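Handout, page 2. Input:
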Amino acid sequence: MGSVEVLIPAAGRVDVAGLRALDADVLARYAADPTHPWWRRGPCVRALTGRVPEHRVADLVARVRDRDEVAEVRIALLELLVERPELMPWLRDVDGRRERSYGLPEAILRARGEVGDRSAAPELATLAASAWRRRQRIGEAGLEALVARYGVEPILTDLGDRPEDRMFRVRMRHRAGADVTETLTDPDRDVAYLAQSLLSDPARLRGYLDEAPTVEAKSWAVFALHRLTGDTDETRRIHAALGHPRVEVSGLDDEVRSAIVHEYAGGCQRRSDPRWRVEALCAEPPARPDVDGQLRRATAALTRAGLAPMPPVSCGDHHRQGDGTYHVIVCDEGELLISTLGRFATGNEDHPVARRALEAAGFRWIDDATGAIRVTDLCVYHFGDREPLTVDTLLFHWQD
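Output:
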């Protein structure tokens, strides 16, 4: 049997079985010593599950309470010791919102749920409604622990009528076998999106189309129905019968709209207007450009204009990370962007010669006015945000 150093020779290299076989006192003593590397102490904590030495509990609790301790170690210890009475005074009094350690506020909330603290229910509901899956799972786990201890109804009384409270209510109603179709009318799209994701009866959705009171509710129903059936012909017939409802965006022409719809609307964020999703299902997609041929054509046009273009590079290579929907061509007038979504080109500065050359070669220059149009209610992930973006960001999109 080896030592901790032998069993964890480097960060990320852990002999889990070996640690489980190691003496619990050795593990606890190592985990409680902050002079050891955190990436060794964390696995030691996890290897203590179900066998924490009583005489080491106080030392381990002290590491949880220490705000200078590494977050990964504190979270692992919190999960290990959550039922220990020695931890309860701190867990009851600590304000998780003041904790600086990454992930610890959420872990504290989950622990409060696991020990039956009903006052944590509103914050857990907020976590469970997060767009970030990691935060969702933590919030859901804390709420599930409260429900397991007290039942659904008491926890519902601890919540109000915020969107996240209604999301929890929808999940509980669905779990109980209730029909949540009418929740498609909820004014908050997070709630309506959740409701449509839970529906499983195509016949009920077809019937609901006649009774749905709003265009959005009808669109959620159409989207959910297509999710269940995959019948594009039926989806298009229903969409036509509804009058082809769509989100109107001032100044957004059909060429640009079509490119954006078919790149983003199918996988847009849940707060998007459902009409974008249905439009993506029903509208004919534009012909995708021959990207390599388009880049050759752009390079040739710029060469003829005497701008000495460099070879095109993808936006990911240009930024040395990530990927996106354009290539960069550096020429004597600066950097030019050529979209992969169509015949769209632009630049960050005034490029009169390049613009004329590219337009003569069949490209469409996206000027400042067109680029600044915000595509209403189409929420797209972009560097942590999930909000509507402008045309220039969508046609020339980069994400690391």
